[in-house]
Amino acid sequence: MESRREFLFSSLSAVAAAAAWAERAPIKIAHREGNMLHVSSPGVYELAASIGGISGLEVQTVRSNLWDRRTALSYKRESIRWNIPTISMGGIMPQGASLVKPATSEPPIRNAIVAGEILGAGVVLVPAFREDCPKMDDESSYGPVVELLQKLSPVAADAGIVLGLELSLSLDEHRKFFALIDRPNVRIYWDATGVDSMHHPTEGLKGIETLGDLICQQHLKNGSKLMEEPYLIDWTKALPAIKASGYQGWLAFETPHATPEACVEQTRRNLAFVRKYLG
User: Fold this and answer.
1) Which pLDDT tens digit goes with each residue over 202-249?
2) To bridge 49 with a disulfide, which of 82, 106, 124, 175 should be the other Cys (CB 3.0-4.6 Å)?
């Protein structure tokens, strides 16, 4: 019988051959728990279900205490009750943990994998920004991180999970880094707005257009503005680029809201805008 790891790897290797499916696949849009509720609660699934059009959630691992099995199971029950799957584990790094310090980042990544398997998440979001991001001109900086991710790749694969790295690297640095890691379930969590804001202007859109199946999941973020309003990324161009790329994964709003009521109203507007350009 094929192991879960073998199944995941074979599935990932088939992505490139499945581009035609993207034309008729449903648009999969999620939201991020941390932007929907200021205080963590399993009730976030009910809130997501009330919006209409949000069909998944990215949860906050540390803030929501999802390393605790009983808490994770309470989230799972609400996920099933409201038919809103947990798509990814965000917010996995506790204070003091950094990807460039593997001794501090390995335990939380492992814990997030365990919690993700309980919740049925497909992605663990591994963040590394600025000083926590490996320097690609310094092997002493990126070498230990490459080794750590190669070590954790089979652990994640056995849980049916992709490690999605959100980094403050340039496009060329992304390509170099992932070529070194060379594991099919260690991929890029792309945030076009975040990339542009971290001193790589115009590369957010270019990454959508050129990174292909290196991208496992994407954030839809527009600062504090609605998606339709001008900001760093021109979403009237970026959303058609996502569609043209053949991307089939989840798109997760990372948009702030002052109240749950504002979350419902503003997300409905954002959904209408996104569907206009992806439909």
Assistant:
1) 999 999 999 999 999 999 999 999 999 999 999 999 999 999 999 999
2) 82
Spatial CA neighbour of 219 closest among 186, 244, 196: 196
Per the structure block, which two tokens stand in for 182?
């060379």
**Sequence spans of domains, the chain:** 29-278
Give the count of beta carbons closer than 10 Å to the beta carbon of residue 117: 18
What's the rounded Cα separation, in Å, for the pair 102 and 146?
10
Joined tokens for residue 31: 């939201």
Q: Which of 262, 156, 275, 164 lies closest to 217 in space, CA to CA?
A: 164
Give the position of tokens 């919740």: 119
The per-residue DSSP string of 36-56 comes to H-SS--TTHHHHHHHHSS--E
Q: Can you read off the two tokens belonging to residue 231?
A: 């900001």
**Tens digits of residue pLDDT in 162-208:** 999 999 999 999 999 999 999 999 999 999 999 999 989 999 999 99
pTM tops 0.85, yes or no: yes
For helices 139-158 and 171-181, what crossing angle results, to 10°?
60
Cα→Cα distances 71→79, 109, 114, 123, 127, Å: 12, 18, 13, 19, 23
Phi, psi dihedrals of residue 57, rounded to the nearest 5°: -135, 140
Owner of token pair 């798109």: 251
* Gap between the Cα atoms of 33 and 50, Å rounded: 14
Q: Which amino acid is at 250?
A: W
In eight-state DSSP terms, residue 247 is -
Short-list 277, 235, 242, CA closest to 22: 242
Report the 3 state secondary structure along 118-135. HHCCCEEEEEECHHHCCC
Task: Please answer whether residues 87 and 122 qualify as being in contact, where contact means their C-beta atoms are separated by less than 8 angstroms.
Answer: yes
* Top-level class of domain 29-278: alpha beta
